[in-house]
């Protein structure tokens, strides 16, 4: 959930279809879907091309995934119109039952949490690379990643994340800076073949991580003044094709430059002393720092709703109100502290992406497929296919991440 502006936050938090008159234009919907997907995933597509065994298999898998990505968005728009809900978890709860709804909320929280870890890992890697250019040996204590990241979290990220409403606009220059930086580099062409046909599936976690905007799609659809399903289909196709083009070009140029030696974070493959790279790192770092509080806000709001619903079910109506200030600050502090610890000790962002990709499969494949199981036979077939593909991606991504960590 990257690159979300103040307008996007309002969409994601809108409680119901009738809360305010919808007025989002088609162009605005395409733009918000696009910027909800684009972000840290840009750094990982070159690595995904390498993991898949080369350009051709990676592009084929990306195009195959595009079919499911677009149909998933269309299904979610249809489900939102049928259910009358304006949030992803609300749609799942109404159409699939309270049990699946709780599973969706848990997956949403874990997804936001792991995305927060990935954000901090990206920022930490960029800071470490810049500090690595310091010629002093041994390096000063204040350049240690554990110190710099702790200072960043305590004095910048936590104050931005603690308020009830997050009012932050991310840096729009990030995409332009990274794109220019990648395009001006000298390209080295090479041809690679996958070591195994199974290697082509390694690209799926990065695709799920990079293209995930499905959590926000329901609220975006409900905010459009033209909620015709065919119109929403055009919006979904346009946004996903634009996203696919940007990711493909980024992955292609990064892979042609570094080949199989590309890092999971492509910026880490470039020298730390290059001024263009330093500018790119700074722009990307500012973007991540400003969008982290938004991710935390989304996860925290679901935790508070989950807390409140469980209190009502268990008859604990007199329990602490999760919306109280001290509870919000405590949840924010715990979220920042735990994500920081994981980001500092995770050896490679590639492992985080595999976990996120596996969880994202629920939102892109499995939950939309569940909606179709309640429909006609032909739609049921596609729903079953979508669920099976999502289950495969979840299992493959999660098991691969676990095996790599062992």
TrEMBL record:
GO terms for cellular component: membrane. The chain crosses the membrane at residues 24-47, 59-79, 99-120, 166-184, 196-213, 234-255, 275-298, 326-346, 352-370, 377-396. GO terms for biological process: amino acid transmembrane transport; aspartate metabolic process; neuron projection development; optic nerve development; response to virus; retinal pigment epithelium development; viral genome replication; visual perception. Its main location: membrane. It is found in: Membrane. InterPro entries: AA_transpt_TM (IPR013057). The keyword Membrane applies. The keyword Lyase does not apply. Residues 25-370 form the Amino acid transporter transmembrane domain. Pfam families: Aa_trans (PF01490). One of its GO terms (molecular function) is L-amino acid transmembrane transporter activity. It is a multi-pass membrane protein. Keywords: Membrane, Transmembrane, Transmembrane helix. This is Solute carrier family 38 member 8. It comes from Monodelphis domestica. The gene is SLC38A8.
